[in-house]
């Protein structure tokens, strides 16, 4: 289809200018043609190319994106407005997202001939991972994440674009019905996509890993393969460690990137929320040999990986929400004021039970302190000493848990309002379950006063488990009261 001139009217929309002319579609800024009718947000119209040389994938991609935009919601996807008739002039009208694409960040780094700082890479990556997790919670997988399809808003959040290759658990997979060939953009395609598997949310995690790799090094980890054989190399080929290309890349960032790029989906992050968590808390990343490597694998290792890939059979993944349910982020709020040993022990038992039925869960141990109040019995200690002291308490408390092979992190939050601090942490880190004591501060008026546990339970963005002191510790609690008297 030829470019539409500014001023063209199409089904009640007035074309203003073309903002993107790509190989698959043209994108225009538009507004309502009717005088006096103003949209609540800027509008963009996407018109697919319908040239005779274009394959059926263009039409199918249009149908898929139309379907996806109508069912997806939230701040990480553009809002859907209208669609044109496929038999006449197909188009999609949606929110015009203000911001810069991730490709623009890459281009700027290339022009300046310097890589973005690790903190900026982590911030951008966490924004993209958070957006992908929002999609996965809606039973959808993007399957075409790449720098040109990610817009970073001015305040730092990410919006995902171009859902023409996407997959949704509740709708027919039109692309799978149309072709058996690998579907996606070569440099960012996950190994399971190469062999025809669609619908695994960890495929999006692989694509985010490719983007992080390019931000950190300026290179693509698997190049730009043009053949199916070239694509299949990622089933066994390890990318060059980022630190071999850019020695300034921190070991924790390389650990995160290479974990995203594992050929086997089961060895990547279990969820995009867990990836976002690590990027937001780099000090909590457990760095192993993968993060410290500075050279490519020897040929023997590459041969072994090739032999292993030759016999690898990818299995269809469960529904995205079922997959995510097995890898939640569990947060336990560990109190430090007016708390008995019985309550702390009961919290530990509840955490162990919760982790026991969630094999891929990540645990975040959180305590909230007010640096202005000092430590009980030790007034006048500064904020740094207070933080270290409570971090040590958390470490001692968590030492009693069976955490073999699990990821655990410890966080001390400084805030005057403990309930609001816990809620903000849960929202920012996509926590799936909050565990806290039902009577953390020993108040007898729980049913009449909005205590901390009640406030958290009322406003939490996820499930909350309130833990009561277990019966065997009644005597211990009485002893505590006697000692206080």
Automatic annotation (TrEMBL):
InterPro entries from the UniProt entry: Kinase-like_dom_sf, Prot_kinase_dom, Rossmann-like_a/b/a_fold, UspA
Keyword Iron: no
Organism per entry: Ramlibacter aquaticus
Highest rank taxon of the organism: Bacteria
GO molecular function, one term: kinase activity
Ranges where the Protein kinase domain occurs: 13-284
Keywords: ATP-binding, Kinase, Nucleotide-binding, Transferase
Name listed for the protein in its UniProt record: Protein kinase
């Amino acid at each position: 289809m030829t470019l539409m001139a500014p001023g063209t009217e199409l089904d009640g929309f007035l074309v203003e200018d073309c903002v993107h002319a790509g190989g698959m579609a043209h994108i225009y800024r538009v507004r309502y043609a009717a005088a006096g009718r103003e949209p609540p947000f800027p509008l963009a119209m996407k018109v697919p190319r319908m040239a005779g040389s274009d394959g059926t994938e263009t039409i199918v991609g249009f149908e898929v994106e139309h379907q996806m935009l109508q069912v997806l919601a939230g701040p990480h996807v553009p809002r859907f407005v209208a669609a044109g008739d496929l038999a006449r002039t197909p188009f999609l009208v949606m929110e015009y997202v203000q911001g810069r694409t991730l490709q623009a960040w890459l281009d700027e780094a290339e022009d300046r001939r310097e890589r973005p700082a690790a903190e900026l890479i982590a911030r951008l990556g966490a924004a993209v991972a958070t957006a992908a997790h929002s999609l996965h919670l809606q039973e959808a997988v993007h399957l075409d994440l790449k720098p040109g399809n990610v817009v970073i808003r001015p305040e730092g959040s990410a919006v995902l674009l171009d859902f023409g290759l996407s997959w949704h658990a509740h709708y027919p997979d039109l692309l799978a019905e149309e072709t058996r060939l690998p579907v996606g953009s070569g440099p960012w395609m996950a190994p399971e996509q190469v062999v025809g598997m669609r619908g695994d949310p960890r495929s999006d995690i692989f694509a985010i890993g490719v983007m992080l790799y390019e931000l950190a090094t300026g290179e693509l980890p698997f190049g730009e393969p043009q053949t199916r054989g070239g694509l299949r190399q990622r089933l066994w080929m390890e990318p060059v460690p980022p630190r071999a290309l850019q020695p300034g890349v921190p070991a924790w960032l390389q650990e995160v990137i290479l974990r995203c790029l594992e050929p086997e989906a089961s060895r990547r992050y279990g969820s995009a929320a867990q990836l976002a968590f690590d990027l937001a808390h780099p000090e909590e990343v457990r760095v192993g040999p993968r993060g410290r490597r500075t050279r490519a694998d020897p040929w023997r290792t590459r041969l072994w990986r090739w032999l292993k890939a030759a016999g690898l059979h990818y299995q269809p993944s469960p529904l995205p929400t079922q997959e995510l349910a097995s890898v939640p982020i569990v947060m336990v709020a560990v109190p430090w004021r007016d708390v008995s040993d019985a309550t702390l022990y009961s919290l530990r038992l509840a955490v162990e039970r919760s982790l026991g039925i969630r094999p891929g869960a990540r645990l975040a141990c959180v305590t909230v302190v007010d640096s202005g109040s000092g430590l009980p019995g030790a007034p006048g200690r500064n904020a740094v000493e207070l933080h270290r002291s409570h971090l040590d308490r958390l470490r001692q408390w968590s030492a009693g848990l069976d955490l073999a092979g699990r990821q655990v992190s410890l966080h001390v939050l400084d805030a005057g309002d403990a309930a609001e601090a816990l809620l903000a942490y849960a929202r920012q880190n996509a926590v799936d379950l909050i565990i806290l004591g039902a009577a953390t501060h020993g108040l007898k008026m729980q049913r009449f006063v909005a205590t901390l546990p009640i406030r958290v339970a009322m406003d939490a963005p996820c499930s909350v488990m309130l833990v009561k002191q277990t019966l065997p510790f009644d005597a211990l609690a009485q002893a505590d009261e006697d000692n206080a008297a």
